[in-house]
Amino acid sequence: MRAAILASGNGSNFEAIITAVKKQEIAMEVAFVFSDKKEAFVLERAKNHQVPAVSFSPNEFSSKELYETELLRLLEKHQVEWVILAGYMRIVGPCLLTAFPQRIINIHPSLLPDFPGLHGIRDAFFGKVAQTGVTIHYIDAGIDTGPIIAQEVVEILPNETLESLETKIHQVEHRLYPKVLAEISDNYKGAVK
Ligand code: GRF
To answer: What ranges do the domains of the chain cover?
Structure first.
């Protein structure tokens, strides 16, 4: 399957995915990495992996619709079939949702529907719950609300710190996202044959 990865920041999930792609654990070509933030470290990571890196900001457009139209043009030009969100800190609008129905996947650092939004790890930690986790889901028009594909629980221990919880969550993310993408790409390969 041919995919683009959208990210706004560090890009450690991109790193985990591209590493698995290179080991041929995921039957996926990464057409390009896109970031809405020009300074995002994920763009450096992409270049280090010889993956094309593209960046522009919604601020450069007069509306979100025009921003997404430009992004859609790019996705179509590269014949992208699947859009993988990996720390893309924006709500995806109708333009992309309509163009990629059930083909946009997101990772969220909590057990959805608990703790949606920008601060999933922090909110679970200060919410004093015993368990949180990682969710991989299709996106819809809501905030972290689309159909769930996979979840993994992470225990919050009595001596847990926010930092130790973040580390544990990211470790799970870096294992779970490549695994789920491998399954999706295998099913997709079977379906289009
Ligand atoms: C991850 O925790 C992901 O679940 C959330 O944003 C973070 C991105 O981290 N959506 P990175 O940029 O992949 O390191």
So the answer is: 2-192
Annotated catalytic residue 108: yes
Give residue-wise pLDDT tens across range 28-42: 999 999 999 999 999
Query: Could you count the other beta carbons within 10 Å of the beta carbon of residue 142?
Result: 10
CA nearest ligand 1 atom 8, residue: 87
Q: Write the pLDDT tens digit of every residue in 140-155.
A: 999 999 999 999 999 9
- State the angle between helix axes of 12-22 and 162-192 in degrees (0 to 180), rounded to the nearest 10: 40
Statement: 2-192 belongs to CATH 3.40.50.2300: no
Q: Which atom of ligand 1 is nearest to the CA of 10?
A: 12
Q: Is the pTM of this model over 0.90?
A: yes
